[in-house]
Amino acid sequence: MYDINNNVWVDPELSHEIPRWYHSAIVVPAIPSWKYFVFGGSIGNFEEGGNRTTSRMTDDAYVLDIPDIKNMKWYPINIVGERPKARESSALFYDNNDSKLILFGGWSNNWLGDTYSLKVSMITGPPYAIYNITPNMGPLTGKTKVLIDGDGFKDTNNIIVRFDSHSKATSPEVQGVFISET
Questions:
Q1: Which of 83, 85, 97, 102 has a 20 to 30 Å separation from 114 between CA atoms?
Q2: Which of 107, 124, 141 is at the close of a domain?
């Protein structure tokens, strides 16, 4: 992996209990850290360069959070609903608008032409992150300006800031003002 912060190549200690090949993979931008998704492929134990007769195709999915190259760990993804057939060599895309992984085709003892989607918004999160709000509390009367620090903010004409009060059924909203992406 290339570490852009330190301008060096790093060989991370990254294991996935069982060797995997011919899987589909994609790196997805997310805030605060990018995610690396893998789906399917063939798994099994064999000597490098040896015969793969003990391998089998799989239909599992995993995600790797990439904030810290030295402490990476794979997390399984629970696929809800109809599962794609176990396969290898499929195409994997990311739909940024709907936060979905799109899986197309692949090989499962014949070439497949099917398509599946998997919503991953709970993993990738929204396109922005809030790190701090100053002041973090204010008077019940309102009318206190707040500064929201974060990342990924966009300059649009429709910036809405919603305040939550556990004692009221509704959450008041006010028009926000864009200052910068952070």
A1: 97
A2: 124
